[in-house]
Amino acid sequence: TTQAAGNILGVITLNGTALHGTLKPASAATFAQVRQGPVVMTRAVLQLVDPLTVDVDTATGRWLAGPATLAWVTPQIQVAGLQATTQQAAIKLDRAEGSAQTWNAQATATINGLTLTQPSSLPVDFTLRVNADSQSAKADIQAQSQDKSVTLAARLEQAWTSGRGTLHGTFGPVTFDRATFRLRQLLSPWPYAIDVTAGKVDGTFDAAW
Prior knowledge:
The protein is mainly β. The protein contains no helices and 19 strands. Strands 5-8-11-12-10-9 form a 6-stranded antiparallel β-barrel. A two-stranded antiparallel sheet has the order 13-18.
């Protein structure tokens, strides 16, 4: 169970069956803990950066929201049990609409400087572009270390009802060089007895569930 508290500021007007609301910047929701797979975020805050408009037709139940940008602040992050930090994170809602039976939304999430703290890792920037509806979600994922040495791209598809999904991605090419980038720079301290100081590597990965 996720516990949340909100501080919502805004204005609501009703004209016949047309309900119009504007949420003001600084409106925020605080989550005691958010858990998604191997990621656990504690005391996370989602805060509006610019106004968010919401329109509802009370006769038909149809609604429309966006666009808007939200800042995501989370002091404590665990990734697969390891502590992590971020420099900045945001969610840009392009558009969301729906009714009582169906909905769809498009949004982009950015995470800058995701870094493991112990052992410490290279800071990585992520961009996640999501197109979701009441049946499924599709996401394009781009990740790159801030020194540009490691890159990754992936496509995620998830069906809500069946729970089935697929992931396909590519990484690299990663160029190893003794003077500029070696394998042991991924983590500090490096916990393994091997290192790579020359050559290139790239590849693909797939998963299904």
